[in-house]
Every structure is written in C-alpha cells, then in structure tokens.
Amino acid sequence: MRDHGGDLDRARAAHGPGDWLDLSTGINAAPYPVGPLPPDAWCALPTRETLARLEAAARSAYAAAPEAPCVALAGAQAAIQLVPRLAPPGAARVVTPTYNEHAGALEAQGWRVAPVETAEDLRGATLGVVVNPNNPDGRRWPPETLMAVARDVGLLVVDESFADTAPELSLLPRLGAAGGRIVVLRSFGKFFGLAGLRLGFALGDAEAVARLRALAGPWAVSGPAAAVGTAALGDAAWQAATRARLAGDAQRLDRIAARAGWRGVGGTALFRTYDTGDAAAAQARLATARIWSRVFPYSDRWLRLGLPGDAAGWRRLERALAP
Known about the structure:
Elements lengths: L7 H8 L5 E2 L16 H5 L4 H14 L8 E4 L2 H7 L8 E5 L5 H8 L3 E5 L10 E5 L11 H8 L4 E5 L22 E6 L1 H4 L7 E5 L1 H11 L6 H11 L2 H24 L3 E5 L3 E5 L3 H10 L2 E2 L1 E3 L2 E8 L4 H10 L3
Parallel strand pairs: 1-11, 3-4, 3-5, 5-6, 6-7
Antiparallel strand pairs: 2-8, 7-8, 9-10, 10-13, 12-13
C-alpha cells in the first residue's frame, strides 16, 4: 500500500478513538454547498448531453479554449491510473518528491520510472510527469517553462490538482500555443471540498484525451457528480471568495506554525508543509489533541497540514501547538 493522507483508520489504531480533526489531506474543509439534486441524477445513467455540459463547465472554469479536448473522470486519481496505458511501457521520469501515485501507477503497468529533481530534467523522456504546484513542497513552474519542456518530451503530464488556488500557473489557457503533447489533470474534489464525489478532468492532447475516454468507459462519472460538478464549476463568485479565504487561512496557519518553532518548507493555499525537526514527534503531539497530520517516508522532518474549516478547528490547532 502506498502511503496517503486521510488515513484516519491508522490514526485511530495508533492513538485511539475520539473526535478526530483530519488535517492530513489538502482538501478544502469548507466545501461547496450541495443543494438538492434532481431525481434523475440518482436514478438515470448520465447522458452524453449531461457529460458534455459538465465538460464545458470545466473548460470555462479552468479558462481552457471551448474546443479543448476534455474528459470527465472519477477524480484525478482515475486519470493517473489510466495514463500509463496511453503508450507501451518504457522509460518515464517523474519530478520528485511528489504525490506517490504517479510513479506507483506507472510502475504497476511496467514502466521504468526515474525520479528527477526539476521539470527541466524531463527533457528527452518518453513520458514525463510534473505536479504544479507540487505536493508536498509547493514548488512551482511557470507555464512558459513547462511549454518549452513539452517540446522535448514524448508526452508531458502536468498534474494541476492544486492549481485552483493559483490559476496563473495553469497551462490550460495556453494549450493552443503549446508545441508538444501535453495532458493536464485537474482535481475537482480538493478545491471544492467534495473529494467523496470522485470527479476530475483530463484536458489537452486530442489523441491522449480520446484514449483516456475510451479506457474509462461510457459512465466514468456518476449522475450526482455531474450535477454537482456542473453547478460548482459555474459558480465563479463562490470560487473567488474561496480563493481569498484560503489565502488568508494559509497565512494564519504559517503564523501558528512559526510560533511552534516550525520552519516553512512550502505548500499551497490548501496545505502547508513544515520542517518540524522531528516529524514523528510533531505528529504524535498533534495526535494527543486528536488532530491528524501527514508525514512522509522520505523525510523524518517534514509534516504537512491542511487548513481547518471552522473556528472550532482553528482553536483546537492553536491550543495543540501553543508554545
């Protein structure tokens, strides 16, 4: 099993039951308000028209061209699982450290994966993967850099799962000017706080997107996901207000961490990563207050925290980290 956030079962097994505050993921803890759904969202198979409206809403929300190839999938994770099947297994490169499912999915399909340090190191790869902004250290690459790299990569996969809070980083408004094969992955659940809905998108290279659609099958997205996704992606006012709130909350979290003596490594407006000196001890300290955090197998110092979604959560975190 590859390690992930959101593993409250492990938290309970190690530290006991209780009213846990899960800050181990980068999921918005103040989700988009889901109202009543029409009965056919639950009872009928999604139609082509339903999915077309959803994909059009995604193009608009992500500032992609109206004609940009786009396929809705059951989360960005579904796309990650299918990407290795876009070409015969060969040599791939992944900018690391990053979300471990990219390398894991490629290796499971027989690809030889080489970790590299920067996006520029992807040049010459048959398939290259970069997460922008990166998880967990928040590294960022300008769109112009990635477009230049794409010209020297067989297929460049850019995971923009956390780009909703940094739209200036997205390649999607610029895909028409790209000189290489690019597939951009977008997560719906993280920014909108509805990860259980399982919705995401792949956009970009026409051949690759068509292949992903074929591999995913006819009903890759549920009726409720299509209905909620179409409404939320079209709600520009909620998105703008949420970006502003998350930016302020990220700064608040940095101040709390600094008072605890932690040094900022990086992150996004949905999560922050800190050098705590001793990640296991820091996680255990938070766990005594029933707050779950994320540590990483490749660093004994880094700890990642999501943002609390309400005043009670912020009070709990502040008390737990009080000097």
